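Reviewer 2 asked us to include a model.

Predict the structure of this chain.
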Amino acid sequence: MDIMLFHSVYGMRPAVAAAAERLRAAGHQVWTPDLFGGRTAGTVEEGMVLRDEIGKDELLKRAVLAAAPHSERGLVYVGFSFGASVAQTLALGDEKARGLLLLHGTSDIAESASVDDLPVQLHVAEPDPFETDDWLSAWYLQMRKAGADVEVYRYRGAGHLYTDPELPDWDAEAAERTWSVALSFLDSL
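Predicted model (structure tokens):
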């Protein structure tokens, strides 16, 4: 499977490289574009400032340019938190997308979004300050309306970015469960 993996607002951290290596070890080809141009953040707040400084349009442009050379083969879009929102935006706009794996995040869905049974899997903490229950319920219904085949996995007690061992949110058990389910999902595509 060809995978485009997008980082969180922390930037290209070791956890992103480790995730890419885990996916490669499972037999996938993985690209990890650095949307922040080498810059990283030490906190979520710093990352949001960095994201806003670069700007949404520029970040999406960078993501599209990174994916374009590979999209003809049918990509699976994957992202962490902010990167999940980027992955979702690209997958919903790419008629050749093979799947969408969202880790710790979602995004708004355009009313005009339409996909043909796009397989989507979401993994989020429960509760999650960035992905509230009301938001996730509305998101799920909008994704189904757009034509996506959606699975949602919640991890009670885990922190927002629980798959990153260098962050306070780290939850080893939830991270391993997430990767086990996610790798099975990718194998099914």
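The first helix runs from residue 14 to 25. The mean pLDDT is 97. We have added this to the supplementary material.
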